[in-house]
Design brief:
By secondary structure, the chain is mainly beta. Helices cover 2% and strands 37% of the residues.
Length: 236
């Protein structure tokens, strides 16, 4: 396989002494569409990992976004230091031929190195599941961040239902990650106003997933998957 890159250069000899395993690639700026893209990879993709480092010394966050077959799979946590940062995305689970693209999504240089992934191993989870808004959706409202600073002052913002359609496979749906993206009417930069989430299901079970918050998405990762029985449904 081969890698193609746009507006990129070498790793600058690790002048910041970050411990880079040279050679490495430095992506320039998002305004230059700086990215590195693979040729077709057979066998699909399961999990992905890449090491990130600060390029040059100018201040400002460094951040990349992963795309598989042109579809975003998440963005790394922003950083502005000289340490090594590992960006990992698990459970991508796409079969067949895939292309991997890593884009710089900030205006500052970022060094990428040691790109790795696992092949798609197939899934033993249910393949016939639907996520939809329930009939009694939370009404639209304005949320003032300064008024909600603790768990006890948290407010409901929306509901969703996960339904296992029970199409004869006999398997439950195991919910390990929820990905939220802003709607067209969203006016807030999420990373400036949101600190965390609680998820409560219709059985009054309370979950506190690990939240990764950026302006382009929110990822909620559950340490123990939430199981919806074959043919069942659960409201959140």
């Amino acid at each position: 396989m081969t890698w193609s890159y746009v507006e990129s250069r070498d790793g600058d000899g690790d002048t910041n002494n970050s411990g880079i395993n040279l050679p490495a690639l430095m992506l320039r700026r998002s305004s230059d569409n700086s990215a590195v893209t693979s040729s077709d990879i057979s066998g699909g993709i399961g999990n992905f990992s890449i090491k990130l480092y600060k390029g040059f010394t100018g201040s400002g966050n460094r951040q990349v976004e992963l795309f598989v077959n042109g579809v975003s799979q998440g963005a790394s946590t922003p950083f502005d230091d000289f340490s090594e940062h590992v960006f990992t995305v698990n459970n991508i689970d796409i079969s067949g031929d895939v292309t991997i693209e890593i884009r710089n999504i900030t205006g500052n240089q970022v060094i990428v190195d040691d790109i790795s992934w696992t092949a798609y191993a197939g899934s033993s989870n249910d393949q016939t599941t639907e996520v939809y808004a329930p009939a009694n959706q939370v009404a639209a409202k304005t949320v003032t961040a300064a008024d909600i600073t603790t768990v006890t002052s948290a407010t409901d913002v929306f509901k969703f239902t996960v339904e296992d359609q029970g199409s004869g496979d006999g398997l439950p749906t195991n919910l390990s990650r929820v990905r939220l993206v802003p709607g067209p009417n969203n006016t807030a930069n999420w990373s400036d106003y949101l600190q965390g989430f609680q998820v409560i299901d219709s059985d009054i079970n309370i979950y506190t997933p690990t939240a990764t918050i950026s302006d382009s998405e929110i990822l909620l990762d559950f340490s123990t998957p939430v199981s919806i029985s074959d043919g069942g449904a659960l409201d959140f």
